[in-house]
Amino acid sequence: MSREIPVGTVDELAPGQRKLAFVEGRCIVLFNIDGTLHAIDDACPHNGASLASGRLEGCVLRCPAHGLRFDLRSGCTPGTGGLGLTTYPVRAVGSKLVMSFDGPSATPAQASTGPAAT
Ligand code: FES
């Protein structure tokens, strides 16, 4: 069953910014690309590198470790299929950012937010 978990506030994620959130033991990276919100696991599916500092080209994020590219809209590598990111629905509800999460609840639904990773 999907749960909605607050992961920050709209003010923390203006267009062009990204931020980290910690949700039930997972590190999530949130992006605001031209007003569209995206949320992904902060772990590259190739070898687990953090993606939080990856370079963005439009909606395509380049892993800083070995350079694989992932489209944040689909989680897939552009054009080739293959490895894919774990993505999550995220939206603004009033002044809050809310992420839908399907994982089992290990603890009461709590999220802590980290500093903006600009
Ligand atoms: S760990 Fe991301 S491309 Fe290798």
From TrEMBL:
InterPro entries: Rieske_2Fe-2S, Rieske_2Fe-2S_sf. Keywords: 2Fe-2S, Dioxygenase, Iron, Iron-sulfur, Metal-binding, Oxidoreductase. It comes from the Bacteria. Gene3D superfamilies: Rieske [2Fe-2S] iron-sulphur domain. Its cofactor is [2Fe-2S] cluster. Pfam families: Rieske. Residues 5-99 form the Rieske domain. GO terms for molecular function: 2 iron, 2 sulfur cluster binding; dioxygenase activity; metal ion binding. Belongs to the bacterial ring-hydroxylating dioxygenase ferredoxin component family. This is 3-phenylpropionate/trans-cinnamate dioxygenase ferredoxin subunit. It comes from Paraburkholderia bryophila.
